[in-house]
Amino acid sequence: MQHVNAVLTQNAYVVRDIEASMHQWINAMGVGPFFLLDHIQLKDVIYRGAPIDLDISAAIAFSGSVQIELIQQFNDGPSAYRDVVPQGQEGFHHMCIYPDDYDKVMADYEAAGMPLAMAGKVASSDARFCYMDARANLNCMMELVDVPEGGASALWAPLRQATDEWDGKTDPIRLMEL
Amino acid sequence: MFNNSTTIFQNAFIVNDLKKSCARWARTMGIGPFTLLKDIDLPNIVYRGQPGELKLSAALAASGNIQLELIQPHHDHASVYRDYYPTGQEGFHHIGILTDDLQASIAEYEARGNGVVCSGGDPEGTEIAYMDTWDDGFCLTELIRPADSYIEMSRMLEDAARNWDGKTVFVPGN
Hints:
The complex is a heterodimer of chains A (178) and B (174). Helix content of chain A is 26%, strand content 34%. By secondary structure, chain A is of the alpha+beta class. Chain A has an 11-stranded mixed β-sheet with strand order 4-3-8-9-10-7-1-6-5-2-11, sandwiched between helices. The longest helix of chain A has 16 residues, at 149-164. Chain A is globular, with a radius of gyration of 16 Å. Chain B is α+β, with helices and mostly antiparallel strands. Chain B has a 10-stranded mixed β-sheet. The chains are: A alpha+beta (178), B alpha+beta (174). Chains A and B meet through α1 and β7 of A and α1, β7 and α3 of B.
């Protein structure tokens, strides 16, 4: 297993109603604003070896060095999300890392008994992502994203800045696109 | 409204076998070394308004700016741990937030309808309160008013992570 020195940068939760959950996180948890990726265009999504259609929205916010991600799956049917959080329920789902060598780390996870649950690409960028089923080891899924850590930081930098500048009221939910 | 003040300091999981879980996090994620806090019996526990008991072992390691906490409860009775993970179950339990005014922070949560599940402290003067944010955030929120000893321990965890050999799961002496 590669020694990845993981920095835990994301807490991701699967939710029933992303709109309601964003407001709960803003009002009860004190985290915001949220950046909403509405019905993300994905492609080549493979779940446990078979292609699936997947219709999800995701919302992202920042709390110190941790990114909070809320995910709602709209379609019925199995997925890496439903594996952990059955339809109609909500809860903690995954953390995320940006490995330098995506394919090697994916193979390392498989070899260590954490199988690939689901893989796909962001349609606009072809950026690959996958969920390794690490529940037996780490009590959650682990997402691997094939973007260099520096690239991820650059991607999120404007959002972090907007978070730092937020007054706690204005535009608590903002649409964004990948 | 918090005015965007929440900064996550800690991520905590409930686990069944503390040492095994530490080894898995170290091997799989390269997070370590872990400092073990064995057989803690926290004093001054108040659980849902009544005097309570909280016996546990915990392990802490630094991952960047975040502290990873793994908790193995040593009891089966209703508690801030077992209410969410009955004996035998494991999973994500709480995010931890530092505060320098615990009572004011508790009051903020209570004003929004998120009450205290459990509060307590340690003999060195660190005080904690677990706020019931489960329905809103799918986890609890632990408010921590750290004593100097707690801040010192956090610093030691970060130093240990920085100087870690990547293999030894526990800090020497654990």
